[in-house]
C-alpha cells in the first residue's frame, strides 16, 4: 500500500507540473480505537445539525499513536487520497494539498480550503492553526513534524469506504450524518445496478479497468477506485484473471499487452492518464491488433474516464452513481 501511495503521489505531482489514481480500497481495516468523554450523537437526519460534542477524547490510530483530540474538530488539515469523504460530511477542512485533488469531481469546493502543498509545508500548516491534522502518510518522520503543530493521526485511506465513513463520523462528532450517508449510498448503488440490468446489461457480464503509467506500464485495476463500484455484489463481474488479483488482496497489478486478453472483460473501462507519456502509450494500445481483436472493442463496449475522477472517496462514489449509467448508455 505504501508503494501505491508513492506512485499516486508521483502522478499527482506530474498533473500539477503538466497542467491520482484513486485510491486503493483495502479489504481489511484497523482504523484505531477511540475512548473518552464524547457524548452520544444526535439521532437527527443528515440534513439537520447534530449536537456537537465538547471537550477532548483519547484516540489511538491504526498505527498505534495515542492522541488527545478535540471531541468535535473545528479546523482540520487533511492530507490523503480521500478528501471527498470529509467533504460529504461537511467537515471543517481548512487545508489540504491541492495537487492531490486537482481534476477531481469536487475540485470546485477547494476555493475556501488553503493549499498546504505536498509534502505539507510546515510553515503554512502552522499559520493555519489547525486543531487536528489527519494524514494518510505512514512516514514516522513526517508524523513527528506534524504532531508538533497540532494533534496528528494517521488515517487508513485504503480502508473500505464504509469503515472510513464510520470512523470519520466518530472523529468529527457526526456519527448520525455518516450513518445516514452510508445508508443512502448503499440504497443508491443497489438501485443503480437494478436499473442497469433491467435495461442495458446482461447477468454475468464481466468488466475490466485498465490504465497506463509512465514508462509504458499497463495496469489492471482490482480493489481500487472505479473497480470497487463495478464489482459490487449486484454489479458487473471480474474476469477470472482479475479475480485472482482480488483474491491476492491487491488494488492493481501490472500486466503485459500480450496478456491483455486474459484480463479483458465484456466491458472495458480505460482511465485516461494525466502524464503525456502514458497518454501516448494508451494511443499505441488502441492501434494494436491485440486491442482491436478484443470482443469488448468489437462490440463497442469500451468507455473512458479521467483517472482523477475515478477515486475511492465518498464524493466520487456519489458522482459515479450518476455518471456510470450515462457512460453505459448505447
Written overview of the protein:
There is one protein chain. The chain is built from 14 helices and 13 strands. It has 330 residues and is an alpha/beta fold. Strand 2 (56-60) and strand 3 (66-70) form a beta hairpin. Helix 6 runs antiparallel to helix 7 (175-199) and helix 7 (175-199) packs parallel to helix 14. Residues 1-48 have low confidence and may be disordered.
CATH topology label of the largest domain: Rossmann fold
Mean pLDDT: 88
CATH homology group of the largest domain: Nitrogenase molybdenum iron protein domain
- Domain unit count: 2
Report Rg: 20 Å
Please state how the strands of the largest beta sheet are arranged side by side: 6-5-4-7-8
Order of helices and strands: HEEEEHEHEHEHEHHEEHHEHEHHHEH
The share of residues in extended strands comes to: 15-25%
Structural class computed from helices and strand pairing: alpha/beta
The helicity comes to 25-40%
Q: First CA to last CA: what distance?
A: 37 Å
Largest sheet: 5 strands, parallel
Q: Which CATH architecture of the largest domain?
A: 3-Layer(aba) Sandwich
Silhouette? globular
Question: In terms of per-residue confidence, which ranges show pLDDT below 50 for 5 or more consecutive residues?
Answer: 1-48
- Number of helix segments? 14
Give the tally of β-strands.
Answer: 13
Q: What is the top-level CATH class of the largest domain? A: Alpha Beta
Amino acid at each position: 500500500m505504501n508503494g501505491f501511495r508513492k506512485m499516486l503521489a508521483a502522478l499527482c505531482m506530474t498533473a500539477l507540473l503538466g497542467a491520482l489514481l484513486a485510491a486503493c480500497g483495502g479489504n481489511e481495516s484497523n482504523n484505531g480505537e477511540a475512548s473518552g468523554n464524547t457524548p452520544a450523537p444526535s439521532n437527527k437526519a443528515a440534513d439537520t445539525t447534530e449536537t456537537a460534542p465538547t471537550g477532548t477524547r483519547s484516540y489511538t490510530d491504526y498505527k498505534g499513536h495515542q492522541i488527545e483530540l478535540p471531541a468535535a474538530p473545528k479546523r482540520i488539515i487533511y492530507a490523503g487520497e480521500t478528501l471527498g469523504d470529509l467533504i460529504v460530511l461537511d467537515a471543517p477542512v481548512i487545508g489540504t494539498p491541492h495537487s492531490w485533488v486537482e481534476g477531481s469531481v469536487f475540485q470546485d469546493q477547494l476555493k475556501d480550503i488553503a493549499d498546504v502543498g505536498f509534502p505539507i509545508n510546515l510553515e503554512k500548516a502552522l499559520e493555519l492553526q489547525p486543531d487536528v491534522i489527519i494524514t494518510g502518510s505512514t512516514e514516522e518522520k513526517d508524523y513527528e513534524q506534524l504532531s508538533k503543530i497540532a494533534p496528528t493521526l494517521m488515517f487508513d485511506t485504503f480502508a473500505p469506504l464504509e469503515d472510513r465513513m464510520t470512523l470519520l463520523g466518530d472523529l468529527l462528532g457526526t456519527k448520525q450524518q455518516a450513518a445516514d450517508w452510508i445508508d443512502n449510498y448503499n440504497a443508491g448503488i443497489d438501485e443503480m445496478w437494478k436499473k442497469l440490468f433491467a435495461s442495458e446489461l446482461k447477468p454475468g457480464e464481466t468488466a475490466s479497468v485498465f490504465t497506463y503509467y509512465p514508462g509504458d506500464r499497463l495496469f489492471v485495476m482490482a480493489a481500487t477506485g472505479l473497480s470497487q463500484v463495478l464489482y459490487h455484489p449486484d454489479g458487473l463481474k471480474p474476469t477470472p484473471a482479475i479475480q485472482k488479483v482480488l483474491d491476492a488482496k491487491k488494488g492493481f497489478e501490472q500486466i503485459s499487452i500480450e496478456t491483455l486478453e486474459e484480463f479483458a472483460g465484456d466491458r472495458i473501462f480505460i482511465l485516461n492518464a494525466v502524464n503525456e507519456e502514458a497518454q501516448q502509450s494508451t494511443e499505441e494500445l488502441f492501434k494494436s491488433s491485440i486491442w482491436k481483436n478484443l470482443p469488448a472493442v468489437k462490440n463497442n463496449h469500451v468507455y473512458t474516464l479521467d483517472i482523477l475522477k475515478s477515486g475511492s472517496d465518498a464524493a466520487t462514489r456519489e458522482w459515479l452513481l450518476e455518471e456510470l449509467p450515462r457512460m453505459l448508455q448505447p
